[in-house]
Sequence to fold (227 residues):
Amino acid sequence: MSGAGTDSSIGQTVAEIRQHIAKAKENSGLATDGAVTLLGASKAQPAEVIEAAIMAGMTDFGENRVQEAQAKWLTLKQKHPAIRLHLIGPLQSNKVAEAVALFDVIQTVDREKLAVALAEEMGKQGRRLPCFVQVNTGAEPQKAGVSVEEAPELIDRCRVLGLELMGLMCVPPAGQHPAPHFALLAKMAREQGLSQLSMGMSEDYETAVRMGATCVRLGRVLFGERL
Ligand SMILES: *Cc1c(COP(=O)(O)O)cnc(C)c1O
Fold:
């Protein structure tokens, strides 16, 4: 992993990552239309670092926690209104109102209760946000995400509730080869008629793109190690 050290400009890092993504797409044999969204996973990164990434042309960012996101992004979004902010961490039902007000995409819908609360709150606020269902492809007990078995039912529920369901998201188990997890997620999305796949992080984003990712979520390779 090349990493964005303090001495290399983030602009150069972004350009290199985009080249790697383009090459991975070329080698994938998949249809090459449709851009891959490069999402900056900006947890634990201060506003200055995020602004440098915005200056380098990045338009999509992901945060894991509602409170941390509010602290940084209320101001950042005022200054940069075109940025799309994605929630990529677990969402508790009691934070749904704040999340709907702040975020532009919710990538971590993983249970019916949350889907119901999101639909209700989006109605109330008049904000219809694109959503992803997060799938726990590794069946890890401590990890967020709906099980592979229960995903179809949750997807149906989201549709009935009127959520704008765009695709599926996963975080494969650490220390396992990610490719089978990416393949499973892609297969599930195909079966469900969902076009978007949020998968791939610093260590494995090229693999994810080869397997059809439409959004890769990059932290360390973009910003350097988290402090
Ligand atoms: C932190 C995080 C990432 C980015 O991880 P890196 O390994 O730093 O690229 C991506 N997705 C989620 C859900 C994360 O929490």
Q: What stands out?
A: Strands lie at 37-41, 60-63, 84-87, 105-109, 130-134, 164-169, 196-198, 215-218. Residues 41, 43, 64, 88-89, 171, 201-202, 217-221 surround pyridoxal-5'-phosphate (CB under 6 Å).
